[in-house]
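Exercise 7. Predict the joint structure of the components listed below.
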Amino acid sequence: MAKRKPIPTNESRIPTMADVARIAGVSTSTVSRALAGLPPIPEETRQRIAQAAKEAGYAVNRHARSLRLKRSKVILVLIPNLANPNFPDLLIHIDRAAYDCGYDIMIAHTAIDPGRSDRYVDELLAGSIDGVLLTASYCPPRLLECIAAGRHLPIVRTLSPTPDLTGITAVQIDEVKAAYDVVDHLAKQGYKRIAHLGGPPKEIMAIARRKGWEKALADHGLSASPDLYIQSGFTMIEGQRAADEIRSRSELPDAIFCSNDESAYGLIAALKGHGLRIPQDIAVAGFDDLSFSAVMDPPLTTVRLPRRDMAERSIQKLKALIEDDADNDNTILAHELIIRASSLRS
Amino acid sequence: MAKRKPIPTNESRIPTMADVARIAGVSTSTVSRALAGLPPIPEETRQRIAQAAKEAGYAVNRHARSLRLKRSKVILVLIPNLANPNFPDLLIHIDRAAYDCGYDIMIAHTAIDPGRSDRYVDELLAGSIDGVLLTASYCPPRLLECIAAGRHLPIVRTLSPTPDLTGITAVQIDEVKAAYDVVDHLAKQGYKRIAHLGGPPKEIMAIARRKGWEKALADHGLSASPDLYIQSGFTMIEGQRAADEIRSRSELPDAIFCSNDESAYGLIAALKGHGLRIPQDIAVAGFDDLSFSAVMDPPLTTVRLPRRDMAERSIQKLKALIEDDADNDNTILAHELIIRASSLRS
DNA sequence: TAGGTTTACGCAATCGATTGCGTAAAGATG
DNA sequence: CATCTTTACGCAATCGATTGCGTAAACCTA
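Solution:
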């Protein structure tokens, strides 16, 4: 129990392994091995060390460990827009899945300042974080450089479709098919003038959903005439604005497929404000199945994303990439069409 | 430019300061000082080092730095329930404010496993993270022990009212007063039977809002009779359930103050489903002012939380606590009553 | 009991950035 | 020109945990 090295005894020092070692009368090597449960430590010693650790109020220093192991057990999640419930809803599952794998998550919101994400790519390159989960199609320029340079990094993308860049593993649904299913459903209900509220024109997700709409219309012998396409965005405000534009058109559509639930919320609110009934006057469908969609008036027909699966598979892939470089092909998960009153012929 | 130390040249090593130093022909001390912009480095050398850093693709290793400085520039945000938009909406501003101060944020969702938060208190105690922001009234047991032991830790609580424990700085609104304002508004509209949809009975936030309701009723000479209190929760589902219970009561209330917007959403959806009109048959008000509340049908009267202020002040306080131990008294911020159609006498 | 094996542990290097202290070289002053 | 500053940098210790290697001591076997 004699002191080996002079350990300073300031009142409020953070306890280190050396403190535990001193209390237990062993070396730090032994403490480390005992706490990690490694082989040649007899039960009796292990107990004593555990007791000493508790007594000292010891907890490992994450940075010392990460520095030594060159692995931090931290992954970064880049989120484009937390205001869209889609992201927190996914984040719940990401958080859970990561926790179950022993990873902590750092988040960075890229809505205001997309350039911010470049800094985190540097963190990845510097070995400060183990992996990055992109929950949107936006890809930091610095990352593109690395991919172009043929570097192989632990990065997974999810929730949005793959743009035509390879080199980043993706976990996603078939967005075109999902949009197709919604429009197909509307067409089968007998709607003829099926409009589409398009998302941001350059957003890959929006492009895919539009493509699904066009495809389904074509397959049903309906036309995707320009007056049936309304340029909008992914927010409620833009959905509201779109309602005004629709009313200004010569002929109203009889159904509208919105590129996401949020714009559908805004659209429906505005249409109702103008005295139109949903679905009697105009049927509406969305995309995402946010939790509110089930209880709104009327309940909204939409596409349910397999958020939990997406999160779990993404984390699983990321873990694989971090730990052994394998498992880097894309995954397509099944979506589900949720049919509710907003799209049903009365 | 001669090599000083044998630096291994594996193809894909992560560049370190030593690499930069070698390229620039200086020592790591100089690199460190140059990159940090510290005094005695002439511009010419600084340039050369910056160039070398870029050439090497260098970025500092967060863990090495944190270990040395005993400061990580990471704060942890504990979030009870990401499914309630209140939290992501606050998180947006927390993320932003933290970023502006040079902090990164880690998040931990405590909905499923509250015991999880204890681990993060250990991280704080071990010096692995710099501070903790609690966005709910739940307080990890381990933390209570520390406070009881008189330890002074960088922790700030926000978004929920303070329970009767001192020792943790809080940034919040006057929940009782805010609830009072809502009910006061309803009473001034002429409503007489003003019911309250209470949140989880042991939740401090729910208790405060109930208290505000009772106080306002008393001040208006109205009674808070037991049949006007409906036990519910903070979710849409529970709001829906509450609607059924209300209809089973002998006499309907003419106004209902819900303990949050989400339960109001569920309640309104269910009441409308039963053919009741809002506000003609029953007025409804909520609490939180989630973004959806402005566009729903009818738009919901509610209390707007100063989320941005809360986030900024919280981070500011946390920063102060981390950096110099000062600024540890509570802050009460102003709320705002948002009056919309759901509570207006027609 | 000599020689061999196993068990239980310690020593010291290592991870990468930071920084107090020291010191040549350049410049300033008398 | 001798002495004193100032400038510009390098050396080496440090932060705390991990781990390869080494080694006493205990245990076994012939």
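Discussion. Residues 17-60 of chain A form a domain with the 434 Repressor (Amino-terminal Domain) fold (CATH 1.10.260.40).
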